[in-house]
Design a protein that fits this description.
Protein name: RidA family protein
GO cellular component, one term: cytosol
Distance between the termini: 16 Å
Strand content: 25-35%
Radius of gyration: 14 Å
Family: Belongs to the RutC family.
Largest sheet: 6 strands, mixed
Shape: globular
Mean pLDDT: 97
Low-confidence stretches: none
CATH topology: 60s Ribosomal Protein L30, Chain: A
Pfam family, one: Ribonuc_L-PSP
Helix content: 10-25%
InterPro entries: RidA, RutC-like_sf, YjgF/YER057c/UK114
Number of strands: 6
CATH superfamily: RutC-like
Order of helices and strands: EEEHEHEE
Structural class: alpha+beta
Number of helices: 2
Length: about 130
């Protein structure tokens, strides 16, 4: 049985999908981009601020499902430019305990929704 997870503390989906789906104890979080849910505006003040907004959006969805970053098993990071890897990694890493950090891949892509620089999705479990 699946349960749809949604919160107004993260941006509304841009298409026919949900912020997250809980199936059993596993939470599948859709990719988040750097939209400020309070204003609906894109954060464009630099890759570190963009990444921080993405992580805060993901945090809000995790919290709505009764979870936190310690519950995250796997992340996927999509970058428009791999030259931003170190900056993104620095902000991303501040949200996790290095000893219990999730599995992850980071890939450079040709383009992302709304032409953003970073998108991150996650899988978590209770």
């Amino acid at each position: 049985m699946k349960k749809i997870i949604k919160t107004d503390k993260a941006p509304a989906p841009l298409g026919p999908y949900n912020q997250a789906v809980l199936s059993g104890n596993t939470l599948y979080l859709s990719g988040q981009i750097p939209i400020d849910p309070k204003t609906g505006e894109m954060v464009q003040s630099g890759i570190e601020d963009e990444t921080r907004q993405v992580m805060e959006n993901l945090k809000a969805v995790l919290e709505e499902a009764g979870m936190n970053f310690e519950n995250v098993l796997k992340t996927s990071i999509f970058l428009s430019d791999m030259n931003n890897f170190a900056s993104v990694n620095g902000v991303y890493g501040s949200y996790f305990n290095e000893d219990t950090a999730p599995a992850r891949e980071t890939v450079e892509v040709a383009n992302l929704p709304k032409y953003v620089n970073v998108e991150i999705s996650m899988i978590a479990s209770k």
